[in-house]
Amino acid sequence: MDTQLVSATSKEEAALSLSQRYRRFVFKRTLLLSSMLLALVIAWAFDTATGPSHLGIDVIWQALTAPDSLDAVERVIIFDVRIPYA
Questions:
Q1: pLDDT over 90 for what percent of the chain?
Q2: Is the pTM of this model over 0.85?
Q3: What is the DSSP letter of 53?
């Protein structure tokens, strides 16, 4: 009878350990994907900001959040030239 109790306890511990390992695996994967997404967004922003007209990241952010506040030349550079090629 004691062996069955010990066996049941060790199975519960093994299952708990498996669920903890799975949670750790999911957390690591989520962290990796989030950091890769952040790196992608940063690379895209720098790629869009670089060029001969020297538009900064703040101008790119302004174009994405309030495009009407930019003058026509900056809007054309950002939306017709840089974003399609980035």
A1: 30
A2: no
A3: T
